[in-house]
Amino acid sequence: MPKLKVDGIEVEVPQGATVLQACEAAGKEIPRFCYHERLSIAGNCRMCLVEVKPGPPKPQASCALPAADNQEVFTTTPMVKHAREGIMEFLLINHPLDCPICDQGGECDLQDQSVAYGRGQSRFAENKRAVTEKYMGPIVKTIMTRCIQCTRCVRFAEEVAGVEEIGAIYRGENMQITSYLEEAVQSELSGNTVDLCPVGALTHKPYAYEYRPWELKKTLTIDVHDALGTNIRLDSRGRQVLRALPRVNEDVNEEWAHDKTRYAVDGLVRRRLDRPFVRKDGKLVPVSWNEAFAAIAAVEHGGSVAAVAGDLVDCETMFAAKTLVTALGGSRLEGRQTGMDYDTSSLGAVAFNSTIAGTERADAILLVGTNLRWEAPLVNTRIRKAIKRGAKVFAIGPETELTYKVEWLGDDLGVLSDLPQAVLQAFDGAERPMVIVGPAALAGAHGAALGLVDTLGLVKPDWNGFNVIHLAASRMGGLMLGYASKGGIADLHDARLTFFLGADEVDYTRFDGFKVYVGHHGDRGAHHADVVLPGATYAEKPGTYVNLEGRVQRGERAVFPPGDAREDWAVFRALSDAMGATLPFDSLPALREEMYAAVPALRHPGLANYEWSPPSLGTTATGRIEGYPIQDFYLTNAICRASPTMQRCSAELVHGESFAEAAE
After folding, report:
1. Which member of 208, 243, 378, 406 has the greatest number of CB atoms within 10 A?
2. Is 358 helix (H, G, I), strand (E, B) or coil?
3. How far apart, in whole angstroms, are the C-alpha atoms of residue 435 and residue 446?
4. pLDDT mean over 58-74
5. Choice among 122-126, 172-176, 311-315, 540-544 with the minimum mean pLDDT
């Protein structure tokens, strides 16, 4: 490990570290535009200049210079200061004075660093160049005259997203960053390029000219648009969430977020349920809370009560509903609303045991019935990192573009019983083998996939390579709370009274009893309900969520629900009084204490310890995987379907519709 001095401070850094990283280890701030910790080194901007001895008597780019023993690095000498001022002056030669109207204003690296490291005035009097705007799709707005050619967006698209559709054309002063043929970028991760852009060349098109960052209240919470549990920050003004940004969590999402996470927030204020409704003469009519509760209390259920949890609900809501169902004499609970049925006797057998971060350490990977690019985009990026380290990837299912090289084994599940020799050889010498079972194969091939644990040696003393992909943010928390009926959702069809907790993907035609929908959007569930009780979205209530690897996480409230809508647990608490089965809690902390007593693993944030005791299931799998559950990445839940941005993304990026762009 090299030892060197930075401004007289001795530091020791790992082999292969750069001088810039050594400076940061010494607590020194080094300005940069092109360098990013998760991208390859480009050395474009030259802003990170430092003086190094021994070496030539000139400033050197610290981002591209390897740290070595006995180096002496100086970050504040007159030579360095003068060089940085010169670089900043060159960067600003063609940069327009857009700060008063630029959406990046207040969060702009160029603003901050020009104040900290620039000259304070310009000596350039010639005309500035102008660059025409480039079309990159419904997500990214471009003002390319502001571009400083750092190429972060280019490297992200190629290295992380795996979509080589952004690049540079022309040379020298005429260089321009553009998408391929100036068409929409076909990536579900394109919004991350806006975060990476150090200037205002790439901004958020759905949020354009809507806010200034200092106007926004920032709230830390958890994303619910997939089962990954992406850590996010919701920025709100008044009673509306204006944007969602990812937070850094190395174990979950690193610092990325997919486009649903970022841009579906405009669906939070559309198609909302803001008052109770009761169906009278075939039509839903608005009523008071007391009238709605009275209609439910009048149902003669005789203890035949059930609850179905939707994909976006928190553990507190599910626990409150479960407690009420139990108090009314019922016991049937289900969270797999589309009808999927698989063995849940061991949570370890349906969890992502290798952990999300552990995915990038795997050296042989078999995908079974999963389109990871749409089902878990940020697990897909981890597999790309594993491939860069030498991992081989095989897949069973209909061929699709996963952004990396895959050896497809066909779509017949029978392959699990007779794997090709190439797969066996790859797994034979693997130290960290990995199998990922997706929802398209889980119901019919759970046992066959578990049989691979011994065949491929997936479980070792320090490694468990058996993994299951879920699609719902509520799935693992629901399974911990018992939302898994033995016969699947078909076991609930004859219930006389059923509570639907934001469940919009259910086949309601198969339920003959009284249907109560507790949710936040006027989507499929509300259209079929006998009573609708308005609830809160993930942005409007604190909640506990468990991601697909069993990581317990908590989110906070960013805004309040609209109109008469209330937090879901409070709805069930008030309803319990009307039904004569008062629940034993009056506040969220009291509810949580009851929940922790029932499921202690939910008390402490972090990975839950699921015991590895897989059930004994039949190891024969037959049949073909006809397709993957997600047919449209951008319209997977009620919030997305209410979002104009997600509707535009679906139309353009999935269905190929074209949209004319008006000149600005």
Report:
1. 378
2. helix
3. 12
4. 91
5. 122-126
Q: Which of 5-9, 173-177, 529-533 has the highest mean pLDDT?
A: 529-533
Q: What is the mean pLDDT of residues 598-626?
A: 89
Residue 54: asked if its preceding bond is cis (omega within 30°), the reply is yes
- Give the architecture-level CATH label for domain 353-468: 3-Layer(aba) Sandwich (3.40)
| Helix ranges (DSSP H) in 32-183 | 78-91, 109-117, 152-156
Taking the domains of the chain in order of start, what are their residue ranges?
3-91, 122-207, 277-342+474-607, 353-468
Global pTM? 0.93
Task: Classify domain 122-207 by CATH number.
Answer: 3.30.70.20
Coil, strand, or helix at residue 467?
strand
Domain 3-91, CATH class in plain words: alpha beta
For 548, the 3-state DSSP assignment is coil
Rounded CA separation 206/217 (Å): 19
pLDDT tier at 661, thresholds 50, 70, 90: low
pLDDT of residue 226: 93
Give the pLDDT of residue 248. 95
- Residue 517 DSSP code: E
Residue 4 pairs with which residues in a beta bridge?
Answer: 11
User: What token pair was written down for 550?
Assistant: 């069993």
What letter would DSSP give residue 412? Answer: B
* Main-chain phi, psi angles of 367, to 5 degrees: -95, 130
Tallying the residues shown for the chain, one arrives at: 664
**DSSP-based helix, strand, coil % in the chain, nearest 5:** 30, 20, 50
CATH of 277-342+474-607, one of 2.40.50.140, 3.60.21.10, 3.60.15.10, 3.40.50.740: 3.40.50.740
Sheet holding 3-6, edge to edge: 9-12, 3-6, 72-74, 49-53, 60-61
CA nearest neighbour of 449 among 411, 398, 406, 413: 413
Of 415, 330, 320, 328, the residue nearest 367 (C-alpha): 415
Crossing angle for the helix pair 78-91 and 109-117, to the nearest 10 degrees: 140
Is residue 339 classed exposed, middle or buried when 0-12, 13-18 and 19+ CB atoms within 10 A define those classes?
A: middle
HEC string of 264-302 equals HHHHHHCCECCCCEEEECCEEEECCHHHHHHHHHCCCCC
Rounded Cα distance, 605 and 222, in Å: 12
Write b or e for each residue in 264-275: b if 16 or more Cβ atoms lie within 10 A of its Cβ, otherwise e: bbbbbeebbbeb
Q: Are 406 and 394 in contact (CB under 8 A)?
A: yes
Same fold, 3-91 and 353-468: no
Calpha distance 143→659 (Å, rounded): 19
